[in-house]
Amino acid sequence: MQEKLVVGQSGGPTTVINASLVGVISASTDWLGPDRVIGMAHGVEGALEGRFVNLGQLSEADLSRLRRTPSAALGSCRLKLAGVDLDRLLQQLKAQHARWVVYIGGNDSADSAMRLAEAARQASYDLQVVVVPKTIDNDLPETDHCPGYGSIARFVACGTQEIGFDTAAMRTVDQVKIVEVMGRNTGWVAAAAGLAKHDERDAPQIIWPAELPFSMERFLALVDDSYRRLGYATVVISETIRYPSGEYVGLGNQLEVKDSFGHRRDLRPADILSRVVSEKLAIRARWERPGTIQRSSMAYVSEVDLAEAELAGRQAVEALRAGRSGVMVNFIRQAGPTYSIMTGLVPLERVANRERRMPAEYLYDDLSGVSDSFRSYALPLVGDLPEFQRL
């Protein structure tokens, strides 16, 4: 039987994760032919059950549509592989005559891929494993940025600007809006909210990232100051903001809902803070939580992000052709006045279960916006942003 290449998607989907899948399919088909590329249905969780999809028969028209299809077309999962899972996964891959595996995912997916590569090595199974980076959190180490971040950053930048205009218009009804965005334990997504801000009237008036220990006293003082100066305030917070003790501001402390990797879910700090603002400052506050649309809105896709996601998929296949395994494709930004990147490869042990925090200097000290250094970093990834007119 001919050896096959298997590709899977894992973790929270992004707007451009299917562009990476297209890159893998196209490059693999060029290399191996149309009948030797198969997909895991719902990542390693589906593969453990023997659920695979033939991908080599997709036409160019199919791939063109798939490139701009949001979320994970193959289906995703959040499964931490254990010893018995690895043995069964190797058996399923052998049954498919798998010789190469591409896994598209983030920190946790890198952990799964690293475990799979090591299990194959110990079992003397000649299997190459390469990871394509994917995460809206932008928290993978050893890469300038992650596919998926440019698009969610664009969504948050544009959405915050639009929410801010609504807040200013409705200040006679609701004076404060608190917007809670994704990002897990980092503030990369929250910081993107400031990319469309031009002066103090523009939203957000306050950005509170996950990296900054939360102070209710300082938070209320900042909201009160904005309200007294402008008559309103739009606040953007990371979903996992915590007090200096490590306790989450959101309701997750009571719910204790976690996935298999130990990540908390159902945190709702914006809900809590809107109530506190209303009670302590005696002004009306409401909260916004975009939810999963922020990571899957094709209407706000970044064209740079889309192209780079596909490139990362293609480069993963090139790494396999070169005999590489146990590595992740990464982006290396090039010096110069014009934005450009090169791709490279980094060992999975330098990526798995690690997080890259956002530098403190990317935000103003008073938390009112983002610095020029962050704009230089992020704007090339999101593309041109709309400009509106105030009266």
State the distance separating the first and last CA atoms: 70 Å
| Main sheet: strand order | 3-2-1-4-5-10-11
* Helical fraction: 25-40%
Radius of gyration: 22 Å
**How many beta-strand runs?**
11
Element order, helices and strands? EHEHEHHEHEHEHEHEHHEHEEH
Approximate strand percentage: 15-25%
Shape annotation = elongated
Our count of helices gives 12
Largest sheet, strands/sense/barrel: 7 strands, mixed
Overall structural class, as computed from helix and strand content, comes to alpha/beta
User: What are the low-pLDDT stretches, counting only 5+ consecutive residues below 50?
Assistant: none
Average predicted confidence as pLDDT: 94
Describe the structure.
The chain is of the alpha/beta class and 391 residues long. The chain has helices at 17-32, 43-48, 60-67, 83-95, 107-122, 149-169, 188-191, 216-230, 252-255, 269-281, 303-321, 372-382, and strands spanning 4-9, 37-40, 52-54, 98-105, 128-133, 176-181, 206-208, 233-238, 285-288, 327-333, 341-347. Strands 3-2-1-4-5-10-11 form a seven-stranded mixed sheet, with helices on both faces. Helix 1 packs antiparallel against helix 3 (60-67) and helix 4 crosses helix 5 (107-122). It is elongated and about 75 Å long. The mean pLDDT is 94.
TL;DR?
The protein has helices at residues 17-32, 43-48, 60-67, 83-95, 107-122, 149-169, 188-191, 216-230, 252-255, 269-281, 303-321, 372-382; strands spanning 4-9, 37-40, 52-54, 98-105, 128-133, 176-181, 206-208, 233-238, 285-288, 327-333, 341-347. The chain is α/β, with parallel strands linked by helices and 391 residues long. Strand 10 and strand 11 form a beta hairpin.
